[in-house]
Amino acid sequence: MQKLNMIAGERVYMEEHHQRKIQAVFRRSGPEYKKSHILSPEQEKALWNISCCGTSDMGLSVCRCDACGSYSCHYLSCRDRNCPGCGGLDNVIWEDKAHSYMITSTYYHCTFTIPSELRDLYKSNKKLLYDLLHKCSSSTLLEMYASRNNGAQPGIIQAFQSWGSDLKYHPHVHCIISATGLSKDRRSLAVPKDFFLPAKAVADLFRGKMLSQLGTYFESNKLRFAFCKKLEQPENWYGLIHKLYEKDWNFNIKETYNGNGNALDYIGRYINRIAITDARVESIEDGMITFRYKDYKNDGNIDSMTLSDEEFISRFMEHVLPKGFQKVRYYGYLNNRYRNENLEIIAELQDREKQAPKYAGMNKLEILEKHYNKDPFRCPHCHESTLSSAKQIPAEELKAHLIMQRIRPRHSMMPRTA
């Protein structure tokens, strides 16, 4: 226990842990929920991480001030991409990079949504069908744009989202598409005088691509039917497909009112976070949680919803992403392989300098200090020197040792040690 003993008897300043509202719901009802529900490995991991984030179960970070000799301690975060309390700095970094991908152009924000009849199928095949939703959305936009602009390609940023404001399961993709495109030979720009993608034609093309590929998956036995057993029967499957071909699918598109800014800001809020944060939670009392949501059936008015802890956790768990799934993807001239080269060509064609991220070359601590104007390593005691010699104490070691008597592991979900 050398790491701990070297601090004993010294001036120690323990960062106060403020338990988050959503985390409190997970901590009080998560263990019982886990006993009564079947969870995927990703869901089980998310349940644990959210419950333990910023507590003794995640371990401790200890820093020493070189000037006054005092120690500062704080509990570690889980950094799970499904945690509503983590990911804020990652969002800042992503938005900074994404803004550097923007060119001089009008931008449009569009949304592809799957019909409600397919939600249980998507829930049963998350990784496979989330990937398919990305592919069908991007190929639809690229084909429609190229057919109207002599084969040119726009820049597209796509972000997958599985929830509505009420936390119900609602898979869809948000897309940011540039009106200006790069020609096929990459020697000129396509600048449509009147950018227009007919919503009905786009929706029909998207529908055809999606249902065709679903049919291929069905015939090759790639689909699972955990939440829609009836669809295993061919007559039910083909009946559903026929019904969906006859149905109008949802596709929405509108010009962004702040250049590319407001669309990027909207998507950026959810790049490294999940469906809800504490900011929307009004109360967590008597095994119930009340939160605000936007009621789109009532002209988007803000209303309140109260759910039991069990129902809230169930809705939340539906949005935990499968392992390895990339929720944000880039297409057109922003495709990963040629992005930098294409942006340099476009900057030259537009006679301007290629944008660079303002945080390029900085580590996360430097970005944290610059963005929030706060030094995370400023000594809380003397306020003059910078903390150094950071050490991380694993949760097991922290739990097994009565750390300095004055600083006890708190909010722990780990079993007591003998």
The average pLDDT is 86
H/E topology pattern:
HEHHEEHEHHEEEHHEEHEEEHEHHEH
Query: Roughly how many Å is the radius of gyration?
Result: 25 Å
Residues in helix, %:
25-40%
Mind describing the biggest β-sheet? 6 strands, antiparallel
- Total number of strands: 14
How does the overall form come out from the CA principal axes? globular
- How many H/I helices? 13
- Residue windows where pLDDT falls under 50 for at least 5 positions: 1-17, 402-418
Task: Report the β-strand fraction as a percent range.
Answer: 15-25%
What class, by secondary structure content? alpha+beta
Ends apart, CA distance between termini: 17 Å
Please explain how this structure is put together.
Helix content is about 35%, strand content about 20%. The protein is globular and about 70 Å long. With about 425 residues, it is α+β, with helices and mostly antiparallel strands. About 30% of the residues are buried. The longest helix is centred in the N-terminal third of the chain and has 23 residues, at about 125-150. The two termini are about 15 Å apart. The chain has helices spanning about 1-5, 20-35, 40-50, 90-100, 120-125, 125-150, 200-220, 235-245, 260-270, 310-315, 340-350, 365-370, 395-400, and strands at about 10-15, 60-65, 70-75, 105-115, 155-165, 170-180, 190, 250-255, 255-260, 280-285, 290-295, 300-310, 330, 385-395. A hairpin with a 5-residue loop joins strand 2 (about 60-65) and strand 3 (about 70-75). Mean pLDDT is about 85; it is low at about 1-15 and about 400-418. It contains 13 helices and 14 strands. The strands form three sheets. Strands 4, 5, 6, 7, 8 and 13 form a six-stranded antiparallel beta sheet that branches.
